[in-house]
Amino acid sequence: MIQREPVGLYIHVPFCRRKCPYCSFYSVAADETYMDAYLKAVLYALQKLPYRYDTVYFGGGTPVLLGAKRLCRILDAVDICSGAEISLEANPCAVDASLLRGLRVAGLNRISFGVQSFSDRELSALGRLHDAQQARYCVQEALRCGIGNVSIDLMLGTPCQTLESLSESIRTAVSLGVPHLSAYMLKIEPGTPYWRDQVQNSCPDDDSVAELYRSSVALLEEAGLKQYEISNFARQGYACRHNLKYWNCEDYAAVGPAAHSFLDGHRCACPAELDTFLSDPLHCDLVEEGTVSDRERAWEYAMLRLRLSEGLPLSAYAARGGDASRLLEHAEPLIAGGFVQYTGGNLRLTVDGFLLSNEVTVRLLD
Ligand code: SF4
Q1: Alpha-carbon torsion 274, 275, 281, 287, what sign?
Q2: Rounded to the nearest whole angstrom, what is the distance from the C-alpha of residue 89 to the centroid of ligand 1?
Q3: 19 CB less than 6 Å from ligand 1?
């Protein structure tokens, strides 16, 4: 039997201590009994999946709430290639030195802290359970215990945020020595308390958010963290290999409620419902209806690749059935407007293009 190439593995851990008022991700209250049942279901699913993995990513929710023991049991059950990237999202309010050391010993080599801001005022407006001091402590402990690839998430466009306060958060992140940083814009989704309370009225307006984004890119690049995706910045060699699989349309399996997989050209979603996952850990539904044409796959590839600073190689787009000449025709006015560049056979969005990425991508691929 020919052994297939390794794939990525995403594990969704749906537990949180408390729901943040802006969050629309699927999560439920952390509960020991549920977490034990969840562990059992994850182990069952992993045992049935016939893959080897070169990246493993625990996302959430708040994966660290499972504790080192459960997380280690999951890692023990995964068929991991040597040199694999093993990442975990972590909330500073739920991390201590012994947990970090335990995970390091179990093979964890990348951790991404949901810091969001180093301003206590902003953190409190975001309803976060940690403060800036705790966030600094976690990052320092993770680096101290040898988890080499430490990332910080910061949020842009949050209530009370100013250019000065964001610059201060970025300077703090850089001074801590992290090799990776993600800067996401706050998006207020329907159904969240932020939506209900119309919190957008106390957030910076669109022009100010654009300024915050441009200034973040400049500050980070100056500090040696190069932008490699709309919201992601890294020193050489520290880009997140797991997330790159998403943008390169490479295969990844998924386990856990609300987790999505992409395997052999098919996108599947596990139901966003913990009880369904517990009763049927392998249940997942095909996301696309009917057969997906080559043209649609090429469109999807282009859309994802255009998120990367490297951009879309037109040769690869054409090889997937896309019409490269038409794309170039559509690109002309966008190049003239400074939203897109075409160099070395790649079409790439500029920083201003990233700011309007949905619109620019739709115009290109229309
Ligand atoms: S900790 Fe993260 S996943 Fe949980 S509610 Fe807050 S933002 Fe959402």
Answers
A1: negative
A2: 11
A3: yes
- 17 C-beta closer than 6 A to ligand 1: no
**23 touches ligand 1 (CB under 6 Å):** yes
For residue 212, give the nearest of 175, 164, 270, 282 by alpha carbon: 164
Domain boundary among 246, 265, 293: 246
Backbone Cα Rg of the chain: 21
In percent, how much of the chain has pLDDT > 70? Answer: 98
CATH of the domain at 188: 3.20.20.70
Largest CA distance in the chain: 60
Span 292-325, pLDDT tens digits:
788 888 999 999 999 999 999 999 999 999 999 9
Task: State residue 185's pLDDT score.
Answer: 96
pLDDT class for 208, splitting at 50, 70, 90? very high
Distance CA 11, CA 146 (A): 23
CA–CA separation, 42 and 281 (whole Å):
7
- What pLDDT shows up at residue 293? 82
Does 226 sit in the ligand 1 pocket, CB within 6 Å? Answer: no
Candidate from 28, 91, 113 with most ligand 1 atoms within 8 A of CB, to mutate: 91
Q: Which residue has the tokens 């001074």?
A: 175
Cα angle 301, 240, 49; round to 5: 75
Give the pLDDT band (50/70/90) at residue 1: low
Can you read off the two tokens belonging to residue 303?
């859309």
Does ligand 1 have an atom closer than 6 angstroms to the CB of 157? Answer: no
pLDDT tops 80 at residue 290: no
Please name the residue whose Cα sits nearest to atom 2 of ligand 1.
61
Helices marked H in the chain: 32-48, 67-77, 97-105, 120-125, 132-144, 163-176, 193-196, 206-222, 241-247, 274-279, 294-305, 314-319, 324-336, 351-355, 357-365
Domain hosting residue 190, numbered range = 7-246
Checking if the pLDDT of 129 tops 90, the result is yes
- Given a contact cutoff of 8 angstroms between Cβ atoms, the answer to whether 331 and 311 are in contact is no
- 24-46 confidence digits (pLDDT tens): 989 999 999 999 999 999 999 99
**Residues 315 and 238 both lie in one domain:** no
> Which of 190, 220, 246 lies at the terminal end of a domain, its last residue?
246
